[in-house]
Design goal:
The protein is an alpha/beta fold. It has four domains: about 5-120, Methylthiotransferase, N-terminal domain (Rossmann fold, 3-Layer(aba) Sandwich), CATH 3.40.50.12160; about 140-245, Transcription Regulator spoIIAA, CATH 3.30.750; about 250-365, Transcription Regulator spoIIAA (2-Layer Sandwich); about 370-425. The chain contains eleven helices and 21 strands. The chain has helices at about 10-25, 50-65, 80-85, 105-115, 160, 170-180, 205-215, 255-265, 270-280, 300-315, 340-365; strands at about 5-10, 30, 40-45, 70-75, 95, 140-145, 145, 165, 185-190, 200, 205, 220-225, 245-250, 285-295, 320-325, 370-380, 385, 395, 405-410, 415, 420-425. The strands form six sheets. It has a six-stranded mixed beta sheet, covered by helices on one side. β16 and β17 (about 385) form a beta hairpin. α10 packs parallel to α11 (about 340-365).
C-alpha cells in the first residue's frame, strides 16, 4: 500500500477538505500515516491569508521535499490560487492543485503512479465534490455548506483565491449530515468561507440550521467562524435547541468604527455589541470568541484604545489576534499610513494579554457548573480530554475509557496556564 500523509494550515474549511481527502485516499487503498512518518505521497493544504501563512507553507513544502526525497509532493489550497501565475513561489512541489480542483487529487495521484499524465485544470472541478467523511484526523467532522465570499473587505485576499460566494444545495447538506452520523460522528461543525450568507433556493442560513437540527440522532452542532452581519434578529432563539452549542466565533476585527469603515466591514461596533447582548440576555454564559486585526493602515492610538475598550466590555472567551499583513491585490495594500511592524507587535501583545485574562475569567466562571464533553482522547494516565458544549477544554476521569462519546461532567477547578489552561472535572 502506498503511504500518504497530510498537513493542513489555516481555517476550519481547509481542515474539513483535508479530512475529505483522507477519506478519499483511504477508500482508494492508500495507507494514512502521520506527517512525521516517511510517505510516498505528501499533501500540504496551504493558507495564504497573511505573509506568515505563506512562509509557513513554504517551509512545510521544503521540509517535506527534503524529508521524503522520492515522494510525490502535492501542494493545494489558497496559496496555490494566490500564486498560480508564479509557479516558482510554490517551491519544489510535484503538483500544485487549486481549490477548484482539490477534490481531484486522488485521481491525479492514481494517474501519476500508473504513469499517466493528468492535468486537473483541464477537468471541471467542484468545490463541493468531496466524499462523505468516514476516515478523519479528528473526532468531530465538518459539513461544508458554502464557499467563496462577496464582501471584498479591503485587507482580504480570500475572494481572489476562493472566488465568489456559492451555496451548496440544501438536499446535499442534509444527506451529508445523515451520512456522517451513520459513520459514527457525534459532533458536526458547519463551515464555509462566509457561512452567514448561505442561501440556496430560498433557504437561508437560519433555515438550513433548523433543518439540520430536525434530523434524528444523538449529535450536537457547532457553527464555525462567521461574520456578524449574516443573520436576523431571531437567530439567538435557534440556540435554545440543546443540539446547537452555545458558542460563536464572531469576527469583530476592530473596536473602531472608523477602522471598520476603512476595512469595508458591514457592521458597526454598536450593532456587534447588540448581538452579543441579545444572546447573553437569554444565555448568560454564551461563549463569544472573536478575531482582532491590529496595525491596520491608519490605525491611531485612539482607534487601538477603542478596540481595547470593547474587549473590556464584551469579555470574549478567546481572541485570535492578527497583525495586519499587506496582501498584493487588495485595496488596503495601497492605503497610506502603513503601520510600522514594531507597533503591530506591541499592540498584538497587548491584545493577547487581554485575551488570556478574559479567557481565564470565562473558564473560571464555569467552575461548579456542568459541561457535556465529547471525549476526543484518553491520555496514558487515564484522563479523558475533550471540549464541552461552550467550547472549553475539559479533562476528567471518564466512566469508560472510550473516545467519541458524550459524558456530563461537573467542573471542579481551572488548572494550567495561558492557552494550555483546562477545566478539571
Amino acid at each position: 500500500m502506498k503511504r500518504v500523509s497530510f498537513k493542513t494550515l489555516g481555517c476550519r474549511l481547509n481542515q474539513y477538505e483535508t479530512d475529505a481527502l483522507v477519506t478519499n485516499f483511504d477508500r482508494a487503498g492508500y495507507r494514512i500515516v502521520d506527517f512525521s512518518e516517511p510517505a510516498d505521497v505528501v499533501v500540504i493544504n496551504t493558507c495564504t491569508v497573511t505573509r506568515q501563512s505563506d512562509q509557513k507553507s513554504r517551509n512545510l513544502i521544503n521540509h517535506s521535499v527534503s524529508k521524503n526525497k522520492d515522494a510525490v509532493i502535492v501542494v493545494t489550497g489558497c496559496m496555490v490560487d494566490n500564486y498560480k501565475k508564479k509557479p516558482g513561489a510554490l517551491g519544489p512541489a510535484t503538483y500544485a492543485v487549486d481549490n477548484q480542483h482539490k477534490n481531484l487529487i486522488v485521481s491525479l495521484i492514481d494517474s501519476h503512479f500508473k504513469g499517466e499524465i493528468m492535468d486537473p485544470d483541464t477537468v471541471p472541478g467542484d468545490v463541493f465534490g468531496f466524499e462523505t467523511v468516514d476516515r478523519s484526523l479528528h473526532t468531530r467532522t465538518s459539513i461544508k455548506i458554502q464557499d467563496g465570499c462577496d464582501n471584498f473587505c479591503t485587507y482580504c485576499i480570500i475572494p481572489s483565491v476562493r472566488g465568489r460566494a456559492v451555496s451548496r444545495p440544501a438536499r446535499e447538506i442534509l444527506d451529508n449530515v445523515r451520512s456522517v452520523l451513520d459513520n459514527g460522528f457525534r459532533e458536526l461543525v458547519l463551515t464555509g468561507v462566509n457561512i452567514g450568507r448561505y442561501n440556496h433556493e430560498g433557504i437561508d442560513f437560519e433555515g438550513i440550521i433548523e433543518q439540520i437540527l430536525k434530523i434524528p440522532g444523538e449529535f450536537r452542532l457547532r457553527i464555525s467562524s462567521m461574520e456578524p452581519d449574516g443573520f436576523g434578529p431571531g437567530f439567538h432563539n435557534l440556540f435554545l435547541n440543546p443540539k446547537l452549542t452555545p458558542h460563536l466565533h464572531l469576527c469583530l476585527q476592530s473596536g473602531s468604527d472608523r477602522i471598520l469603515t476603512k476595512m469595508r466591514r458591514m457592521y458597526t461596533v454598536g450593532s456587534f455589541t447588540r448581538i452579543v447582548e441579545r444572546f447573553r440576555k437569554q444565555m448568560p454564559h454564551f461563549n463569544f470568541t472573536t478575531d482582532i486585526i491590529v496595525g491596520f493602515p491608519g490605525e491611531t492610538d485612539a482607534d487601538f484604545m477603542a478596540t481595547r475598550k470593547i474587549i473590556d466590555e464584551l469579555k470574549f472567551g478567546h481572541i485570535h489576534t492578527f497583525r495586519y499583513s499587506r496582501r498584493a491585490g487588495t485595496r488596503a495594500d495601497r492605503f497610506p499610513d502603513q503601520i510600522p511592524e514594531d507597533i503591530k507587535v506591541s499592540r498584538s501583545e497587548i491584545i493577547r494579554t487581554l485575551s488570556e485574562k478574559y479567557r481565564k475569567a470565562y473558564m473560571q466562571s464555569l467552575v461548579g457548573k456542568q459541561q457535556t464533553v465529547l471525549v476526543e482522547k484518553i491520555d496514558p494516565a487515564g484522563f479523558a480530554h475533550g471540549y464541552g458544549e461552550h467550547y472549553v477544554p475539559v479533562m476528567f476521569r471518564p466512566e469508560a475509557p472510550e473516545k467519541n462519546r458524550f459524558e456530563t461532567v461537573t467542573l471542579t477547578r481551572l488548572t494550567g496556564e495561558k492557552d494550555k489552561a483546562v477545566l478539571m472535572g
